[in-house]
Write a structure and sequence with these properties.
The chain contains four helices and no strands. Helix 1 (14-30) runs antiparallel to helix 2 (38-61), helix 2 packs antiparallel against helix 3 (67-97) and helix 3 packs antiparallel against helix 4 (109-143). By secondary structure, it is mainly alpha-helical. The chain has one domain (12-143): 23S rRNA-intervening sequence (de novo design (two linked rop proteins)), CATH 1.20.1440.60. It is elongated, with a radius of gyration of 20 Å. The longest helix has 35 residues, at 109-143. Helix content is 68%, strand content 0%.
Length: 157
Amino acid sequence: MSVPPGDRGKSSMQFVETADRIEKRTMELCRKWPKTYTFIITQRTVALASAIYEHVQYANSILPQTEEERTQRILELEKALGANYAFARKIERAYSLFPLCGQKDGRSQKEEQEKSNRILEEFMNLCLEEEEAIKGNLHYTRNMELHRPRNNKTKPE
C-alpha cells in the first residue's frame, strides 16, 4: 500500500542524499573563494563536506547483524554528525571573512552581501536537515533489533 505524497516523511536514505548535496555544493562554491584562503579555510571546508559524505556512506553500507556491527555503524554516524557540526562552523567562519559568493566585478557590495546571506542560509538549512536525518538514523540504529542469519546446517547426529 502506498503512502499519499502529502503524508510521506523523509526516507531513511535522506542522510546520504543530503550529505551528497552538501559535498557537491561545497565543491562548486569553494572554487569561487579568494585564493588567499585556500590553505586556511577552503581545503578544510571541502574536507569536512567530504567527511560527512564518506562517513554516512560507510555507515549506510553496514547492515548490522551483530552488536559489533551496530557499534561500528553508530560510530560512523557519530563521526558524520561531528563533521557536520564542524562544517557548519567553518562555513560561518568563511562568511565572517569574505563574501561566500566570491567577488565579482559589476556586483555591488549590497548584492554580494545578499547573495552571501542566501548561500549561508542554504548551507545552514542543509546542515540542520543532515543533523536531523543522522540523529534519526542513530536513534533507529541504537534501538533496532538485530537479525542474525539463520544457520541452515543440520546438527550432526
